Amino acid sequence: MASPSPQREKLRILLIPFFATSHIGPFADLAFHLAAARPGVVEATVAVTPANVPVLRSALARHGPGHHAAVQIATYPFPSVDGLPPGVENHSTVGPADAWRIDAAGGDERLMRPEHEGLIRDCSPNAVVSDILFYWNADIAASVGVPCVTFHAIGAFPMQALATLIYADTTKASGGVVTLLEFLGPDVRIPVTELPAEARSQQPDVVRAAGAKLSSAHSSCFGLVVNTFFDLEDRFCDMYVRGMKRAYFVGPVSLPPPLQLAAGDDGSRCIDWLDRKPARSVVYLCFGSLSHVSEPQLCELALGLEASGKPFLWVVRSEALVLPEGWKERVGDRGMVVAGWAPQTAILPHPAVGAFVTHCGWNSILETVVAGVPALTWPMVFEQFITERFVTEVLKIGERLCRRLIPSEAVAQAVARFMEPGGVGDAARSRVKELAAKAHAAMAEGGSSHGDLRRLIDDLIQERTTGAGTRSDTLV
Ligand code: UDP
């Protein structure tokens, strides 16, 4: 049988996200954009472990029924991990007691490398897009002679700050406070107590050794793809790519906006409820897919929202939420509580949403920027305090809700103040609206992110033509 004409052969890209919903989502979006940018030229496949297939499918479904043709799904086994029942393979679907086991497994080169090696050899792609957390994939891809691009689920500002901080001696911070990206300005300061565990570790050598592996994967890989857009992080993008071979700023990949939700599901319940509320009146609260909020804190939040007098739509991960006695009756239809999961990318752009109380996960920040909704920040873990500074001090599109532990009075006061017409919330809203227009422009034909996505595809095609491989076909 004759082999297919080289010109007709597709560029097959294999994308490998980490085991968390907030990583699988942007990888699915990126795969969709890669396939859609060059229909018939690029074939994008996202590889996940079996229990993550439904998560991937629902992330792809946001782009409409055509996604099935455009993006393929591959699976590979989740390693066996002590203490984790079979089928538990996603950081976002487990309680705090098990989440660390998923992280430990996912970050364990010894466990994961053989699985990824088998996957890459079986799929035999022309290029790999790997989650940065699976840093060994740069090496595996090199061993089979294909380029590996690492994809970052967080932005240039927090990545650069983290990279700097793990080499800083935070024990010598003056007054317990460090300055983020000092040499670039603005003078963004953060207490050591709010830094991610890696930057406060009692074992800095261990952390630096892990950091060194990541940076070595960075410098050896073909390039970096970041879910951000140039107008959002301009000088931080420039700074971040110094010393890197190639960088592509292709976000926000959650654009274009999601399709209308099917009637009758939880999502449309939220939208129906929002439809009945006045424009910009509702405070939307959601703390991402990973954070766990304690029962006493949930209770303070509930009382604070009640006392604020403002309508609210609150997504609570804990199904066993115990609300203060009589709270539901007192709040009535002014508040809606969703247990589990809500369609955030459909909720944020609704005209009734006036503010977003967020934990500052990177996806949530991009989504609020895209929707033009100002933020009240309540960071909890990881790099979220760093991203919070980016939101409140660099972009100035939000304010801190209150300190780490929230008393109900502070919640009520902060929410009421932020929603006051003509106040700080409105000033933040006009800035975030400008950014929203820039985000949409970046992703539209001729925009910076659109251009970077095409440049990525062109570079990978070019690499296939002239790179280390033996093939000489062209595809443009
Ligand atoms: N998300 C959602 N509904 C929920 C909770 C989360 O759609 O009820 C989505 C949200 O839109 C975002 C992602 O999950 O895309 C959370 O990612 P982020 O980076 O904000 O936070 P993380 O989960 O990593 O803490």
Automatic annotation (TrEMBL):
Spell out the PROSITE patterns in the cross-references.
Answer: UDPGT
Q: What is its EC number?
A: 2.4.1.-
What is the superkingdom listed in this entry's lineage?
Eukaryota
- Print the keywords alphabetically: Glycosyltransferase, Transferase
InterPro entries tied to this protein: UDP_glucos_trans, UDP_glycos_trans_CS
Record-level Gene Ontology MF annotations: UDP-glucosyltransferase activity
Among Pfam families, the record links this protein to: UDPGT (PF00201)
Q: Describe the family membership recorded for this protein in Swiss-Prot or TrEMBL.
A: Belongs to the UDP-glycosyltransferase family.
- Entry protein name: Glycosyltransferase
Which organism does this record belong to?
A: Panicum virgatum
